[in-house]
Each structure stands twice: as structure tokens, then as C-alpha cells.
Write a structure and sequence with these properties.
The complex is a heterotrimer of chains A (95), B (327) and C (256). By secondary structure, chain A is an alpha+beta fold. Chain A has a domain of 55 residues: Phenylacetic acid degradation B (Ubiquitin-like (UB roll), Roll), CATH 3.10.20. Helices cover 18% and strands 21% of the residues of chain A. The longest helix of chain A has 12 residues. The relative contact order of chain A is 0.18. By secondary structure, chain B is mainly alpha-helical. The N and C termini of chain B lie far apart (54 Å). Helices cover 64% and strands 0% of the residues of chain C. Chain C has 256 residues and is mainly alpha-helical. In chain C, helix 1 packs antiparallel against helix 2 and helix 1 crosses helix 8. Chain C contains ten helices and no strands. The chains are: A alpha+beta (95), B mainly alpha (327), C mainly alpha (256). Chains A and B meet through strand 2 of A and helix 3, helix 6 and helix 11 of B.
Chain lengths: 95, 327, 256
């Protein structure tokens, strides 16, 4: 009899430097509590984190790679969204 | 090395649209990373699953020879370091299984392949750890050889594998130092300890050279893997790099490399070794090493005696979610 | 041939430190035996984490005991014979199956968690500092093992049966945790260590809660095993020490 598959969870960790939770990997666990413990035991062994999230991998909706150009190309031309687009007199200093 | 999987070749896929394949190769050539959901040739997927899972199996089976000595480590400092190192290997197996899973295969299937002997693991772990010096030799030589192979894999074309390798290389940075420190201590210890260190080097040296896989002249796989940027250096070039790095380290602590033909080639600056017994390599890979049966039996036992635990966790989870739905 | 074993002047404080240290090292040793053989890869890492915490605690305690008694941590761990070991019997029993391994962590940590908490207020500042570190570690061991025990007790028929058998096997070894002899009393009176009797209520409440969620019945009052604290051990400790001490005994005086 094939073994029942233990669900996969994605692990996100907020590091000590105050940045947002970042995806670090995944674990297998039967439920959310065990997944959280596994994430702690696997991914924070070197003082990597102060907070852990686990999300069932099946709950993630991802963009289709085929849509990559449509979704992300148009933004390349919007250079006026970046500060370097604008000229400020040098004597004013940093702005 | 951990990539001996590449020794088998896949039949090329003919059914795939050439345009897709050309576009795929173009992405690889421009150093774009391939991600899980991207289109990829079936052979690329199969090659990766085979290589990553073999790498994962090697980490897991690799816990056994070193695990032998955790309870017998000669000081509490050595014990903690060894336990942490072997634990890391379990973690690395876990990261690698997860990377393989992004290609559409489950951990359960991968483990079944290992236990059914349909998947391989590195030949090196079929050798026994007979003395404490073997723990030093494994850290120094086996991890030293592994790191030579793994650093280029951080730039592998497949994103999830490359990312797992970056994490693994970072964590492994202490492993080789841990092993060499043991060897240094033994080499500077009592005559018995020094003899123990030399004996370990004598037994591990040749199998470590075999870890890099057959010579380039015999290697069937390198071309496609190189073109796909799964592999970036040939077996022989990595092996030479390992030899050049390791020989002076042995000499530094007064240990002799067990190879009467070893000599420094002044012109190239390379250390040249005598012939490698590839017959032994093939025999060990085919199941005829000193510990093949024990290693596999230990993994099977862990898997089988753990089944009721995994089932219990799933059963409890099912009951909890049924209760939640009823409420 | 002279013995390689050390002799120790066991003042009440040294004895107290050895009892704590030996508990931690022996349980850490048992958990480390799982390496490469755990039921899941995730649990492989969890068991090793707990073993590393416990070995770390033992090292701090040995270092302190050694500074008082004139030995280093390795002499204390490697050069005492079974009768000089002061750990409770519970921690030296073989691992058994995963249920027994997990239950032992629950029983031990449910005691050590409040014990270390109270010890953070010890009149001995060195011990208080060790307690502050150990308490956080053991709190997680308790959480982790309790969650597993709940799943094993509640999971399948087989896991329930195994959890029950583990409870039956280990329960008689739980009483020793609460013992206090004259040396302990001296530590309690000096405000260095908590009175184990005061930890009973917390331990009972923890066990009641976890066992209920695990659908397991608390065993009735029974005769309790004893002897570890004074060096009368089970047959298992000798084998464990033969492993643990092998190299130090076989090559006396060598540096590793």
C-alpha cells in the first residue's frame, strides 16, 4: 500500500534585521502545529529568525510563467517612477 | 560525487517542439534561471530529478557512517560538533528533496526509489568508519570533495536547486574545518593517534578520488549536463582541484598520501596521482562495497519503523479537521 | 594497573550540579542515538536539536562542578564509573520506540521546565545563569514532545497502544524526579535549588492536560523506582557508558 503523503508547507522567516518574512524553504508535516515546529527546528538552527510563518504549499496561487512578459514587461518603460529620473540642482544636496 | 547520477544517459525527447527547446537553451545560455513552473525539456526534468534526489539520498545515507561515532565521540566538544554536523546533513537532504519536489515528484516517491534500489547515492558512504580518525578523514576529505562539487552547483541553471545549494554551502563551511581539526589533533597526538590518522587517510583517499565520478574519457553524461549548465566542470578537473588542495594539507600535518606514484608536476603545478581502481568504483556502485547492505537496511528500518508515527500524525490531523468542519 | 577513573569530593553543591548535568548528558546521549533513524526527516532534526541543547546544558554544569571539584568537563563525563553517576533512572533507559522516546521527554521536561524556571532565582548566580539558558530550551522540548504525544495518543489504534505501553513502562520512573535527600535539602535551605515537592503541582497539571488531549489515562499510583541519584543504576547505564567513554578509557591521557 502506498504511503499517505504528508502535506508540504512553505516556510517564511523574519530575520533579526527587521526585514519582512522571507521564503526560506519547505517542510513536510501533517498539520500546522507540527509544520511550525518543523520549520523552527529545520530553518532557525543558526539564529536565523525571530518569527516563522508556515503556509500550505497548496494554498499558494502563482502567476503563470507564460504571462511573464504581459505582467512584468510594461513596467520597464515607467522610468519616471524612479528618483533618478528627476534633476535637482546640485547645490540643493541630497533629496 | 554526489552527482554520480549523471552517469546514466536519457534518450533524447523527439516529441517536443523545437521552438520551445531552442528558446529554453537560449535562456540557459544567457544565464537565466529556470524555475519550477517554466517549460523545460522532459530530459532536463528527469536529469535534475535524478541528480537532486541522488544528492539528497547521499546526504541521508551519509548520516549513517558518521552517526556511528556520535555516542563514542572522545570529548563533549567533539560530540556536539559531530552531532551538529550530522544533523546538518539531514537538513541538507531535506532541502534537496524539497528542490526535487518542485519538479513534480513527491518525497515519498523519492524515498521509495532509494529503498527499492532504483536510485543511487554516493559510493563513498558504503565504506565503514572504523576508528575515530575516520570522522576526521570524512570531514576533511569527503566534505572537502563535496564542497568542490557543490560550489559550482550554486550557479546551476535550475533555480530551486541552486538556491538549496547556496544554503547548503553556507552551512557546510564548518564541516571540513571540523574534520581537519580532528586530523591535526591526532597527527600531533600520541604515536597511536598519529597511526590512527594515517590509517584513516590510507583507507579514505582512493574512495574520495572516486567520488568525482569516472574519468572524462568514460563519462557519458557531461555534454548535455554541461550544455544545460547543471554541471559546470568535468569530473577530472574537479578531481584535480581537490588533489591540489588536499595534498599540501596532508603534508602540513605530517601525513603521507597513500600513493607511491604521487608527484608534483613542476611545469603545470599540479599534483599527479597514480591510477585509480575504477573496477572497485563500479563494484561499490553496483552494491558490492563493504557496507552497501547495512546502509540500505538501516534506511529501510528507519522508514518501516517510522511508518506508524507518520500515520498517527496524519490520522490526528484528519480527526482535527473533521471536528473543525463539524463545528 | 591504576584506574583511569577520577575520585570526587561531592559537596552538596557539586552533587547537585552532577545530578542535573548527568540527567542532561544521558538524555542527550539517548536522543543522539536516533540520528539517522528517526521516523521523519523533520523529526530527525528536532531530536538532534534537543540532544544538542541537553549536551550544552551538561557542559555548562560540568564546567561549573569541575571548577569547584578540580576537574574539567571531559574528566567528569568520561572518567566516572557507573556507580559515580547521579542521573535519574528515567533518562538512562533505552529509547524504546518513538512513543517511549517522546513520552520520556514529556515526563522529564514537564519537571525540568518549572525546575529551571525556579532555579533562575537561585542564590548561586552561576547556576541561575545556566538555568536562564536551559529553561528556554526545555520549555521548547516540552512543547515539542507534548504535541507529538497528543498525536500519538489520539492518532491510530497502533499509536495509541504504543503510547499507552510507553506510559506503563516509564511511569514508575517518574517518582525519582521528586526525591530530595539531605544534600538536596542543604541546597534548598541555601536557596540554591528549588524544593522538588513545590514543582509537583505544575508537573501534575501539565501531565493532566497533555494526557487528556492525548486520550491517555494517567496510570494509578504505583511503586516508584529509585537509586540513580546515589549511583544504583539500571543495567542499561553500563552499556551506555561503555560507548560514551570508550576512547578516553582505551587511550588514557590522550588529547582529542
Amino acid at each position: 500500500m502506498p504511503e499517505v503523503k504528508t502535506p508540504l508547507w512553505e516556510v517564511f522567516i523574519r530575520s533579526r534585521n527587521g526585514l519582512a518574512h522571507k521564503h526560506v524553504g519547505s517542510v513536510h508535516a501533517a498539520d500546522a502545529t507540527l509544520a511550525l515546529q518543523a520549520a523552527r527546528d529545520v530553518y532557525t538552527r543558526r539564529g536565523e529568525g525571530l518569527s516563522v510563518w508556515v503556509v500550505p504549499s497548496s494554498a499558494i496561487t502563482a502567476s503563470d510563467p507564460a504571462d511573464k512578459d504581459m505582467l512584468f514587461e510594461p513596467t520597464a518603460s515607467k522610468i519616471y517612477r524612479h528618483p533618478t529620473f528627476y534633476e535637482v540642482p546640485e547645490e540643493v544636496g541630497n533629496m | 560525487m554526489y552527482t554520480q547520477a549523471l552517469n546514466t544517459k536519457d534518450a533524447p525527447d523527439t516529441a517536443e517542439p523545437e521552438a520551445h527547446a531552442a528558446r529554453f537553451q537560449e535562456r540557459i545560455d544567457t544565464e537565466e534561471r529556470i524555475e519550477a513552473n517554466d517549460w523545460m525539456p522532459e530530459a532536463y526534468r528527469r536529469t535534475l530529478i535524478r541528480q537532486i534526489s541522488q544528492h539528497a539520498h547521499s546526504e541521508i545515507v551519509g548520516m549513517l557512517p558518521e552517526g556511528n561515532w556520535i555516542t563514542r565521540a572522545p570529548s563533549l566538544r567533539r560530540k556536539a560538533a559531530l552531532l551538529a554536523k550530522v544533523q546538518d546533513e539531514g537538513g541538507h537532504g531535506l532541502y534537496l528533496y524539497a528542490a526535487a519536489e518542485t519538479l513534480g515528484v513527491s518525497r515519498e516517491e523519492l524515498v521509495d526509489q532509494l529503498l527499492a534500489q532504483k536510485a543511487r547515492y554516493s559510493s563513498i558512504f558504503n565504506y565503514p568508519t572504523l576508528t575515530w580518525a575516520d570522522i576526521g578523514a570524512i570531514g576533511w576529505l569527503v566534505d572537502g570533495a563535496a564542497i568542490m562539487n557543490q560550489i559550482p552547483l550554486c550557479r546551476c541553471s535550475y533555480g530551486p536547486y541552486a538556491r538549496a545549494m547556496i544554503r547548503i554551502c553556507k552551512e557546510e563551511s564548518f564541516h571540513q574545518r571540523q574534520g581537519y581539526e580532528i586530523m591535526v589533533t591526532l597527527a600531533r597526538g600520541t604515536p597511536e593517534q598519529k597511526e590512527m590518522a594515517q590509517d584513516a587517510l590510507n583507507r579514505w583517499w582512493a574512495p574520495c578520488l572516486m567520488m568525482f565520478g569516472p574519468p572524462d574519457t568514460e563519462s557519458q553524461h557531461s555534454d548535455t549536463s554541461m550544455a544545460w549548465k547543471i554541471k559546470r566542470f568535468t569530473n577530472d578537473s574537479l578531481r584535480q582541484k581537490f588533489i591540489d588542495a588536499t595534498v599540501p594539507q596532508a603534508h602540513h600535518i605530517g601525513l603521507a598520501i597513500p600513493d607511491p606514484a604521487l608527484r608534483l608536476d613542476e611545469a603545470s603545478g599540479h599534483w599527479l596521482t597514480g591510477p585509480i581502481d575504477w573496477e572497485e568504483f563500479r563494484r561499490v556502485l553496483a552494491g558490492g562495497g563493504p557496507c552497501n547492505r547495512e546502509r540500505l537496511a538501516a534506511r529501510r528500518r528507519a522508514h518501516e519503523t517510522g511508518a506508524w508515527v507518520r500515520e498517527a500524525a496524519m490520522a490526528h490531523a484528519a480527526k482535527q479537521s473533521a471536528q473543525k468542519q463539524a463545528a | 594497573m591504576p584506574t583511569t577513573s577520577i575520585t570526587l569530593d561531592e559537596t552538596p553543591l557539586v552533587l547537585h550540579l552532577l545530578r542535573r548535568a548527568d540527567d542532561a548528558l544521558i538524555l542527550g546521549h539517548r536522543l543522539s542515538e536516533w540520528t539517522g533513524h528517526a521516523p521523519t526527516l523533520e523529526e530527525e532534526l528536532a531530536l538532534a536539536n534537543m540532544a544538542l541543547d541537553l549536551i550544552g546544558q551538561a557542559r555548562l554544569l560540568y564546567a561549573y562542578a569541575g571548577s569547584l571539584a578540580g576537574h574539567d568537563e571531559d574528566q567528569l563525563a568520561y572518567l566516572r564509573d557507573a556507580r559515580a553517576w547521579r542521573n535519574c533512572l528515567l533518562v538512562e533507559l533505552p529509547n524504546g520506540d518513538f512513543a517511549q522516546t517522546i513520552l520520556r521527554i514529556v515526563l522529564f521536561s514537564a519537571f525540568m521546565d518549572p525546575c529551571w524556571q525556579a532555579t533562575t532565582r537561585s542564590a548561586d548566580p552561576t547556576l541561575a545563569a545556566i538555568a536562564a539558558k536551559a529553561e528556554k530550551e526545555v520549555a521548547y522540548h516540552l512543547r515539542h514532545s507534548a504535541e507529538w504525544l497528543i498525536r500519538l495518543g489520539d492518532g491510530t489504534e497502533e499509536s495509541h497502544r504504543r503510547a499507552e505501553a510507553a506510559l506503563d513502562a516509564l511511569w514508575p520512573y517518574s517518582g525519582e524526579l521528586f526525591e530530595a535527600d539531605a544534600a538536596d535539602q542543604a541546597m534548598i535551605d541555601a536557596g540554591i535549588a528549588p524544593d522538588p515537592a513545590t514543582l509537583r503541582g505544575t508537573w501534575d497539571a501539565t501531565l493532566a492536560d497533555v494526557l487528556a488531549r492525548a486520550t491517555l489515562a494517567r496510570p494509578g499510583d504505583t511503586w516508584m523506582q529509585t537509586g540513580g541519584r546515589t549511583g544504583r543504576h539500571t543495567e542499561h547505564l553500563g552499556y551506555l557508558l561503555a560507548d560514551l567513554q570508550y576512547l578516553q578509557r582505551a587511550y588514557p591521557g590522550a588529547t582529542w
